[in-house]
Amino acid sequence: MGREAAIERVLAYYDDDGGYFRDLAARVAVPTESQRPERLPELYRYLREMIEPAFTTLGYTCRIYDNPLEGCGPVLLATRTEKPGLATVLSYGHGDVIRGQEGEWAEGRDPWTLSFEGERVYGRGTADNKGQQLAHQAAITAVLATRGRLGFNHKFIVEMGEENGSRGFRPLVQSHKADFAADVYFSSDGPRTEIGRPNITLGNRGVINFDLVCKLREGGHHSGNWGGLLANPGILLAQAIASITDATGRIRVEGWSPGLIPENVRAALKGVTRKAGPDAPEIDPDWGEPGLTPMEKCTASNTFEVLAFRTGNPDRPVNAIPPEARARCQLRFVVGTDHGNILANLRRHLDAQGLERVVIETPDTSNAIFFEATRTDPEHPFARWMKAAVDRASRQDCAVLPNSGGSNVTEIMQYDLGMPTVWLPLSYAGCSQHAPNEHILRPLMREGLEIVTSVYWDIGDPEEGYHP
Amino acid sequence: MPSRDPSREGAIDLATDYLDSGGFEADLARRVAIPSESQTPEGLPHCARYLDQEMVPAFEAMGFDCQVFDNPIEGCGPVLLATRFEAEDLPTVLGYGHGDVIRGLDDQWTKGAGPWQTARDGDRLYGRGTADNKGQHGINMAAMGAVLEARGALGFNAKFMIETGEENGSSGVREVIEANMEAFRADVFIASDGPRVRTDRPTVSLGARGAQNFDLVCELREGGHHSGNWGGALADPAAILAHAISTIISQKGQIQVKEWLPPPMSNAVRDALKGVELDGGPDGPRVDRDWGEPGLTPAENVYAWNSFAVLAMLSGNPASPVNAIAPWARAHCQLRYIVGTDVDDILPALRRHLDDHGFSQISVEPPPPGNAAGFSASRTELDDPWADWVRRSIERSAGQPPATVPQMGGSICNDLFTDLLGIPAIWIPHSYTACSQHAPDEHILLPLCREALALMAGLYWDLGEGGTPGTR
Lengths: 468, 472
What we know:
Strand content of chain A: 15-25%
Radius of gyration of chain A: 23 Å
Helix content of chain B: 25-40%
CATH superfamily of the largest domain in chain A: Zn peptidases
CATH superfamily of the largest domain in chain B: Zn peptidases
CATH architecture of the largest domain in chain B: 3-Layer(aba) Sandwich
Shape of chain A: globular
Strand order of the largest sheet of chain B: 1-2-6-3-7-18
CATH class of the largest domain in chain B: Alpha Beta
CATH architecture of the largest domain in chain A: 3-Layer(aba) Sandwich
Number of helices of chain B: 14
Number of strands of chain A: 22
Number of strands of chain B: 19
Low-confidence stretches of chain B: none
Mean pLDDT of chain A: 95
Largest sheet of chain B: 6 strands, mixed
CATH topology of the largest domain in chain B: Aminopeptidase
Helix content of chain A: 25-40%
Oligomer: heterodimer
Strand content of chain B: 15-25%
Number of helices of chain A: 14
Largest interface: A-B, 97 and 97 residues
Number of domains of chain B: 2
Structural class of chain A: alpha/beta
Radius of gyration of chain B: 23 Å
Number of domains of chain A: 2
């Protein structure tokens, strides 16, 4: 049967030393760090040398859009129109990565060189997102080679600024809506929730980053001469943080709650757990909203994090009251949260605590992110069709997550382009994405290629395919 | 150049002339140029050099015998004892200074010419150690020299020690004194360090707060984890540490660990501090009047109460933040405490407090060796006869009674004198609170130094006049 032939073809590519991992190595070698302005030329180079030629060969027409925001990464759209009237599928990947964090990787590994150890393949971008984007590309290559056509119209976005908050991407799409218009959305990013079982994810948590700053005066002052006389900014900021959540992470800011978990979300999450693999961190059962399962905490509730905190001179402390303290903070939030008033509600909260001296600031652009929360109804026909397709391909019961814990550009597809959105994550939660030692698991990615190929095959099937 | 005048006024004139003629600035410039950091290994040879090149020749020129004691603790600086013995029946006065300084913090200076070069700007003289303590012991040495020149003798026996590890907790100084008790023995200790209560108010300080430094650490796991994938399932160490700190001290700076508090303040202390107004000068930080123990005045908070500070805290990567839950958070903390605090229970009480508040995952760890502090609190009582005698000498020179504080806010090895040598210890600070000691832009005020030279010359003159406590 055709589907098996396509799968065989994609697995041959994966298992061949000159195939998937050679292509991935070339892509990982381009240091596409979108949080570093000096990498802008690398972002363009990645599209021109890695993405555009590959899609052109597959019969796509490519266009690279400059980002409307100065210094931000470009966006490539590859379009293959087979026949008007066929479903148009929109896919997405991002070619940029977070900072390499050179020197912090175990065994002296270089983030820009693939290194293999047992089942693991290390390198910046292997999981997030170069490896996953390449899996989709390999899948459509196999379908095209086997069937001679996809059986649907296809648009593929490769964005180069996702790790920098996708700044400029949304206005870019908004001013070219027709170019990006499609019926359904199918892409891969992020980790599965259970390492041994596929899941589709129908949305994402929103995110807002902000700095809390307590700057009381210029310069440090001797902690003996002044201790007891000068308010301590580190202590005030600690008090502010301690007022935002309780000691177990439960949010206490009025207006930051999303309300009760909707029944369809609770039902979808029933039986879904988090199995992140052997080296994954141990879940803290007492952290977060009480009474929720870990899955509900990560995907159906809001969470506040202190990403970083600094006061004084931690590397070489001196006996002085520091002049200022700064915390890099983040709120992840789900659909139902009053996302337009997050910072206003926080301001009101801090003022009510008597913490007027703690100021809310916009973080440096490299860390200033905001995404809306999204969610496609698990009962939407496309969601149901996709679950069935993945069940078929994996011969497993695919889990359905109403949204992920992470944050991404789904807002554009759901709110601007107006389509149902399905993500099929191909990594696992222990993959250290956003940290040193990012890696993928060879068997897991192999299974990922198989499923993605099967899904694309099925979408294009004249009878079984998805018809909006 | 004033002619030699064997009188109190003559001695004072000689002392102030030392500043007016530029001698003070010249001597201090050479001394500041020696980067005698005691918190870095590179500073150690400079600590020894400071004694050999600057202190020993200066004391020998005044007829002192100098003895440099190696520090018995590896990596800690030497201690100089200079002794000038005049006669058996005269009182013996022990002086003190420290030749070491805190880190230069070279790249953070915004004024002057960096830490290792003095630079004058109006009344200010910038440089690391100008205030803490090279300028202050330089003043006392010069005042003693002026008395010697005016009188031909001091009229008392003088001992003067210069240590080189004060900023690193004076490690080893106790051992040096214990092994040489006779050499250090004296009737009274009079020295200068730290700031006055306000620029225009001569100050006598009778003790020092102790300092207990420690780290609070919340280390939950290895490595960072994506805050989207894990946010809600993994505890946040910085948030937990912030919560722990918020239980130790209130939003208004009131200590919440009851075992950390000293006994209630005596009326004598309240009386002594009545009318003591703090003023850091025009560029000094503004006192936060609502910070600290409620009901206490600012002066009572700093000179007669305990205070807790977060000196530094780190979690994640503040310079280049990533969207990950940090694996650990660390706060470098300090309790300054006065005599009467149950010192041995500071850390055990903290452990109990953390456990009682559900923070058993937070560990209390030793501070980094470079900022270990560890001074004890000690003081001489307000009614000590020597304290009274010193106050009267200062009043005679200044025309106003000095402010008297039960203990300075800072910490120093005062207990070596009060407890180990068993003598009254009296401090006459020559700096002011906004001098940025322990920070970039450290400086002294030259008019204040000039007044200090006069006060100290008058005091050393008076010491040789007879009628000191214990004599008839």
